[in-house]
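Postdoc handover notes: sequence design on the structure in folder B. Input tokens:
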């Protein structure tokens, strides 16, 4: 029978970059799973949700360590999503989890939520509000990360959505914030703003870079949209964010098909 340590030794980062000094399982993954161990052992099937798993260590760690199934997963990164899928297929664990958008399908009735802390407070706000709104009233959130990326403001974000927030002791430069007692609040995200330079109303979720505003890079590139070849039929907007450039290009050339 596969053990957690054996699983972790075999996990890959692909399709992300791989190198001897780049790992698929970090100290935060291990600490989250250890801090949540008792809660995971007691959680009924189908009541565990995992958010922003980097490469599959959290999802597959729960599956192997606790023989869990019905794990619901949301990953903002498509690279992380594909890495989890590849690792699960290689270990024969594909049937242990399902993927969902951040919302009720992911979190309804969840008793345990495991989270790799995002660096953006806006992203954490959207996640915390969703967990407090949709999860079981007895839910416990275990949100972990590297010490250098954790700030006191993260405790404040969680405290607006949960009555109890505490930090674990550090281990290998990692820490876990544990939150209980959800407080239902009106959702902050998505947010809407106007971008006069593009003539657009922009809608953004918490993890969107620059939110509903126009960042300096997009502002610069907008100046090149009028120079698009008139005979162009397709365009690709890589790292499109909220899609300002994609929409501007489609407006410029009505016959253009844009992949954003």
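Designed sequence:
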């Amino acid at each position: 029978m596969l053990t957690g340590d054996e699983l972790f030794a075999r996990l890959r980062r692909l399709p992300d970059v791989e190198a001897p000094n780049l790992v698929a399982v970090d100290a935060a993954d291990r600490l989250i799973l250890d801090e949540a161990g008792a809660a995971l052992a007691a959680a009924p099937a189908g009541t565990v949700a995992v958010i922003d798993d980097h490469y599959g260590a959290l999802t597959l760690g729960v599956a192997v360590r606790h023989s869990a199934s019905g794990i619901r997963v949301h990953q903002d990164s498509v690279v992380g999503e594909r890495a989890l899928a590849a690792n699960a297929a290689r270990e024969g664990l594909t049937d242990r989890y399902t993927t969902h958008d951040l919302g009720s399908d992911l979190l309804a009735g969840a008793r345990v939520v495991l989270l790799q802390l995002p660096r953006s407070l806006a992203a954490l706000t959207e996640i915390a509000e969703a967990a407090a709104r949709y999860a079981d009233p007895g839910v416990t959130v275990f949100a972990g990360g590297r010490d250098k990326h954790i700030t006191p403001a993260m405790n404040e974000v969680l405290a607006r959505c949960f009555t109890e927030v505490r930090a674990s002791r550090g281990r290998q430069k990692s820490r876990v914030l544990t939150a209980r007692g959800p407080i239902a609040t009106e959702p902050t995200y998505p947010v809407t703003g106007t971008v006069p330079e593009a003539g657009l109303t922009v809608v953004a979720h918490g993890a969107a870079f620059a939110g509903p505003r126009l960042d300096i890079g997009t502002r610069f590139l907008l100046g090149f949209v009028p120079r698009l070849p008139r005979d162009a039929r397709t365009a690709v907007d890589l790292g499109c964010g909220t899609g300002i450039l994609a929409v501007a290009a489609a407006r410029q050339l009505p016959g253009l098909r844009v992949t954003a």
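Context for whoever picks this up: The chain has two domains: 4-182, 191-259. Don't rerun without checking with the PI first.
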